[in-house]
Design goal:
six-stranded mixed beta sheet; 409 residues; alpha/beta; 15 strands; 35% helix; 23% strand
């Protein structure tokens, strides 16, 4: 280990108790989305950063825009550190909104309890920990006195669970940040440079209600909707024949997640709503995927000419694929992570989707890397007893600091 690397490592170690305290403070403040009343958590995060010497810009999202995106309140944060003159502008993005805790916890989901070297709490791994990962990496660089050129920006956003439209996308669209590169929250044992996209469609099948004693006088929307479901499930089998060339991505997926309809047990259903989730691999074109699904639905409805169907797009999250320039981030992070963790750390894709795509859509090369265990499953992400190995937090902070030092020489 070089003298600079050893100095950075020692600084991270010296501040680690404070880093853990910051993560705990963020976990203890609820920021469930839905309902999405997240401005209070943004303020807690801003104060945690300010307590450690950062100057924090607060950028409240206009209320009408927040409401239009299904949330109650949202404030985005930017904390900048400038080193030397010129150089890259690297954004470090973590999101503070989390899915509701749900049932089945063995501890308080907002307690930040530590057991056997793991911290437990909703959002501890996805992705409140990475506010601290990035903040303490920046502090270690600053305190190490390494001659660097470039600007580091910590981007705090609070709408990842709602799609990222009023978080990263809003910051970039408003011109509040103009990064040349970006790193977004993730886990420690791989650098992610690609992930799936996602399409949500709402299918509304309409018929005509009638008394169950004379059902033939109505038009059964549920019967027609069942035909649509059968068509979708038959189509789903064909998706297994497509496999992404990116390791870790796999095949496209189709899930019907919500069904709503009917009036009463003794009434022919007049309306049924179906919501479906179609995961897209990076090689797929989202518009072509949507057109194909609409074709499947319309084809199934031909057997029910008396019923009507409408299809509305609810969400379109485009897949993330590497941009020119992302290889610089990948190389630096993989090399430093392999050194710090003492095992080969490579690059792969993820089958989920994130708001990192908004940076890529704005032309900003981005990869995902942060604190966390080897997998979403091991972290219990989006499940009861979400957890983070604190040693991974320590090591990921060193990796990020060392990689940033390489990128800003």
């Amino acid at each position: 280990m070089t003298d600079i690397a050893a100095r950075i490592s020692d600084l991270v170690d010296a501040a680690f108790a404070d880093e853990v305290a910051m993560v705990a403070a963020l976990v203890k403040c609820p920021s469930d989305n839905p309902p999405g009343d997240c401005a209070p958590h943004a303020e807690v995060t801003a104060k945690e950063l300010e307590a450690r010497g950062f100057t924090v810009e607060r950028h409240p999202v206009p209320e009408a825009l927040v409401r239009a995106n299904g949330m109650i309140s949202a404030t985005n944060l930017i904390a900048r550190r400038v080193f030397g003159a010129g150089g890259p502008v690297i954004a470090l993005n973590a999101h503070g909104d989390v899915v509701p805790p749900g049932e089945g916890w063995s501890c308080d989901p907002y307690g930040a309890e530590i057991r056997d070297g793991w911290m437990y709490g909703r959002g501890v791994a996805v992705s409140k920990c990475d506010f601290a990962t990035y903040a303490f990496a920046v502090l270690a660089l600053e305190q190490a006195g390494v001659p660097l050129n470039g600007t580091l920006e910590i981007h705090g956003t609070w709408d990842e669970e709602a799609g990222g439209e009023i978080g990263p996308k809003w910051l970039l669209d408003e011109g509040l940040s103009k990064p040349t590169h970006a790193i977004a929250a993730s886990f420690s044992y791989a650098v992610v440079d690609a992930h799936n996209g996602c399409l949500h469609l709402e299918v509304v099948v309409e018929g005509k209600s009638a008394h169950a004693a004379i059902p033939f006088t109505g038009i059964d929307a549920l019967e027609a909707a069942t035909g649509v479901l059968n068509g979708l499930y038959a189509f789903r089998k064909s998706l297994a024949t497509k496999v992404s060339a990116t390791p870790g991505i796999g095949s496209p997926q189709l899930t019907v997640g919500l069904i709503e309809g009917g009036i009463n047990t003794n009434v022919v259903p007049d309306k049924v709503k179906i919501r479906l989730d179609r995961r897209m691999i990076p090689e797929e074109n989202p518009e072509a995927v949507e057109a194909e699904l609409r074709g499947v639905i319309e084809g199934a409805m031909k057997a029910y000419p008396a019923a009507r169907v409408s299809v509305n797009r609810i969400l379109l999250a485009r897949p993330l694929a590497p941009l020119p320039g992302s290889e610089e981030l990948t190389e630096a992070l993989c090399r430093r992570a392999s050194e710090v963790f003492g095992e080969p750390i490579g690059v792969k894709g993820l089958p989920l989707y994130t708001d990192a795509r908004h940076y890529a859509e704005a032309g900003v090369p981005i990869v995902l890397y942060g604190a966390g265990p080897r997998s979403i499953t091991e972290a219990n992400a989006h499940r009861a007893d979400e957890r983070l190995p604190l040693e991974d937090l320590r090591k990921a902070t060193k990796v990020v600091a060392l990689a940033l030092a390489d990128l800003m020489r």
